[in-house]
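Lecture notes, structural biology module. Today: joint structure prediction for complexes of two components.
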Amino acid sequence: MALQKDHYSGSPRAGKQRDQNYPNSPTVKTNGQRDNPIPSSPSARSTAFDSPSPRLRHRRRRSTEFPGDINRANGSNLMTASESKYRSMWIRTCSSLWMLGGVIFIIYMGHLYIWAMVVVIQIFMARELFLLLRRAHEERCLPGFRLLNWHFFFTAMLFVYGRIFRQQLVNTVSSDKFFYKLVSGLIKYQMVICYFLYIAGFMWFILTLKKKMYKYQFSQYAWTHMILIVVFTQSSFTVANIFEGIFWFLLPAALIAMNDVAAYFFGVYFGKTPLIKLSPKKTWEGFIGASVATMISAFVFANVMGQFQWLTCPRKDLSTGWLHCDPGPLFRPEYYPLPWWITRFTPWKEMSVLPVQWHALCLGLFASIIAPFGGFFASGFKRAFKIKDFGDSIPGHGGFTDRMDCQMVMAVFAYIYIQSFIIPQDYSVEMILDQIMRSLSREEQQRLYVKLGDILWQQIQG
Amino acid sequence: MQKENAADAQSAPTTRLRHRKRQTDVNPGTGKPNGSHLLVNDRNKYKSFLIRAYSTVWMIGGFSVIVYMGHLYITAMVVVIQIFMARELFNLLRKTHEDRQLPGFRILNWHFFFTAMLFVYGRILSQRLANTVTPDKVLYRLVSGLIKYHMAICYSLYISGFVWFILTLKKKMYKYQFGQYAWTHMILIVVFTQSSFTVANIFEGIFWFLLPASLIVIDDIFAYIFGFFFGRTPLIKLSPKKTWEGFIGASVTTMISAFLLANIMGRFQWLTCPREDLSTGWLHCDPGPLFKPETYALPGWILKWVVPLQFPWEEISVLPVQWHSLCLGLFASIIAPFGGFFASGFKRAFKIKDFGDSIPGHGGITDRMDCQMVMAVFAYIYHQSFVVSQSLSVEKILEQVITSLTLEEQQALFMKLGQMLQERL
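The predicted structure, tokenised, for the full assembly:
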């Protein structure tokens, strides 16, 4: 796919060169980023060589999956194809480095900026996906239909982030009387507001149904809903993770990137048995090697990341300053004495393990076994609808959705894992707290607090 | 105009059902020449009327019995309706040719259905389930464990369905399979959103389920009646048999009957009391301030022409809930019909006559439920936003805290509340 993005390819079909017949030719654009000849197995995993980006998912080489395509006369295209290969490699490296740099910078800036980045990514993804199955001819007959998509997008955003930031918003504006009233009013009626926005969109949709365009309009409506659900579920969970602590956002993302890179390397060096028909370049050796590597790096990353308070502290409001907190028992190192055969040969007597590293192992297991299915899903989807890429926002990589497909699956799992196993959930207590927060004013809450204190005191006494 | 409303004429006595919008012609617009078809229509009209009336009566009867039986049985009825709706909709856009090549693909649909059911009803009924099994120690621990890991369990089920879907992708069938996958998701979302909200309403008190449903039925009936007698200006291209006169007349009638029905229904504790657990016995409770009658003295100008008629009332008693039901009635008359328009447009877009044929004379269950779905969601959101907060007070929450939380939980709540208030200062 890389050469599709390439504007410099000499021959118009340079992008479609296949590597099956000419495994050692440098014109292989499929695994085009590497300089070394690709192993003859067409199913070798070929993630990009831009390994230093811990944050990115590398593109699967999708282009070799049409084995029926005939190789053009390679001889005449050799020079231009290899030129274009290097060019595309260069483009990919550049954009990867830019992305990596941007992500690191934003993480340094803090939770609020990461949230903004997630929202921006979300908007781009939604735009790509909205555009994907649109047909220009019908669109001309339906002015204003695109606006409906963005109306639903806005409603979904209000709904999702309103729920997540309920507590944080209230904490942020508690100082200002006027804002406090406004914000608590908004929170209280958030569901109604979002519902009426949705119903307005629903009615607008029905009122703009045009004869002979019914089927198109209904499929666009369904498509919009599916997109918004996919995009917002994972991004809302990502944001919820971020505010629990950047650690819970960074670790899963890094694991996915690590899994990709490792799978590529193992595939290049040992790849032999194809993994799945959907992505013929993936191999079992790459898969298993990457799983092991991911688990190990999960263990190590968790240790490294867990030492920074900036990454481990939850953010209770929407401020941007520095954070200090008691990280909790998960991030306090526990010491295990090393077995004798290590202590004999090295100066280390015991190793310190943060309890969170065991959790990271579970995350790593999921990232290596199940998260790749997100990539398979996206590949199958593109194949089903005969599209090459979801978009072309990122030079050399395709669109945002191409980058994010495995990350999405991982983000949802990370959120559910955190909510189920890491945060001690007190279901009924949470429910009642939620009720108190939503339905009582501040004075009433204080009254409740005082009364509850009295009751508990009496119970302890008598 | 009269001919268009004719097919609806005979199903007037149904208080529970939505009347079928004219599906007999998929092509709207051109009115058939009246003269030549009248007699033929008449004969078919009466026959279909009989079928419709028969199934209507059965439905009403069954429904009343179930309402009498209680919350758990109504929930069971909702679940059954849900299953039928999902089956109808799953079958709708399936293509038999492709299906033959994909054995076991249908099971995937039901796997997702089961997962959605577990997720949705687990969330809604978890507290009540916990309340039911409190006396038994073993069950209680099992149930609280399930509740705690409920989200993780449902997620694992969903992910296994997702992985299964990807592993069964077959070459050349990709587009069909993805289409079916998306369709499954949309169906489950539509079906489960509204049914979960319906069940949540039921357990808040049958009143909050019965009132919206009746309002939709009344709106239908009176739209037909007004359209029959006064209908002249067409309302919307999608459903050419609807008229503005029918619409407006039905709105007024629905609002009035909302006011009255709320008064009648609000007197029965069986209907107004919330159910805190999954038992089936009789209910007694303090209905709350919403159902306590307030008396208003009738204004002077009404008294003036009422008293000469020897009208004994000088004041009327109004339950506060009647004002809420006015809002419900407004929604039921103005916005809920859009659910019907949506279904009509959908059927027209995909050139299908009916969603199914489970109910003789009426079509499928989805045909009956299209407006009800929109109303159920609104009723739930309205109830959660405006009614619950009114009936909650410091005392009520304290009572809840004392009765449903253990001592440790109460202390945890106390500490968390303290933290929250502290952070605000």
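Point to remember: Residues 66 and 73 of chain B are 6 Å apart (CA to CA).
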